Structure formats: C-alpha cells, structure tokens
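In response to reviewer comment 3 from the previous cycle, which asked for concrete evidence that the modeling workflow produces usable outputs, we include below a single protein chain processed end to end. The sequence was submitted unchanged, and the resulting structure tokens are shown without manual editing.
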Amino acid sequence: MTRKQAGFTLIELMIVVAIIGILAAVAIPAFMDYMKKSKKTEAALQLNKVMKNDKVFFIANSSFVTTTGAALPTGTQCPGKFAVTTAWASDPAWSVLDFQIDEPNLFKYSYSGGASTATARAVGDLDCDGTSVTYTLTMTAPGGNAAGSISEPAISAD
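The workflow returned the following structure tokens.
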C-alpha cells in the first residue's frame, strides 16, 4: 500500500517567498509615493480658499488684504502634523481672509499682500526627510480684475 504525499516542497515555498519579496519591493515605494502626492492636496485646497477670499476682498475694497508676512502655524512640524491653533482668528490678515484650519495640518502658511499684488505660500515637509515642498499663490489685478494662480512644486525623482 502506497501513500500519496501532499504538500509543497521547500523549493516551491522559497519561490513563493521570492515572488512576494519582489512584489513588495516594487509596491511599497509606489505606495509611499502615492501617499506623499495625496498629502500635497491640502496646500492647493487651502491656497485656493485664500485666493477666493482675497478676490472677494479685492472686489469690495479695490485692494488685496494688506499685511507684511503673516505666517501660521508656528513651531516645527516633524514628526507628524502641526497642531490645531486658534491664532488664525487673532491674526488680522488671516481674520480678514476668513482663513483658518480646524484640524491638524501638514503645511505652514504665509501671506503678504498690498494694494495690487499678494502672495501666499504653503511650505511643508511631508515625510520629515528635511526636504520641503512649497506651493505659491500669486495674486495680481491686471486692469482692476483680481486674478490668481497657484504654482505647484516640481515632482522630484527621489
């Protein structure tokens, strides 16, 4: 009477482990890149909010919100996110722009404006590697019409 053997050989198991290792080596960096890209959307959305509120202010006052460099939140981000702060409401420029962030965020925002131009920036170190990304909102008023554009950072190959 012969017995039928069932199961996998050691070589078959080693091949499966090797395949899983190769898939992980490819998938994990791609996943981390997607995570970094998804974190960048915060800056574009918040600067878009600044642009809309500054346009409304310009229409009512024929000038952008005037200030000399309001920057919030303060402190350092890494590790993690900037904590929720109530300083937005007490800062004159951010208050006039009706801008605040009510949850932990990844970027530090700054605003500087005058009668015919304004600039807002969002700077953040998304993965705490010492490399910051900067989004810039530039507001101008050609012919008395407020307009703005957001420039995104270049995508690095790291």
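DSSP finds four helices and five strands in the chain. We consider this sufficient to address the reviewer's concern, and the full set will be provided in the supplementary archive.
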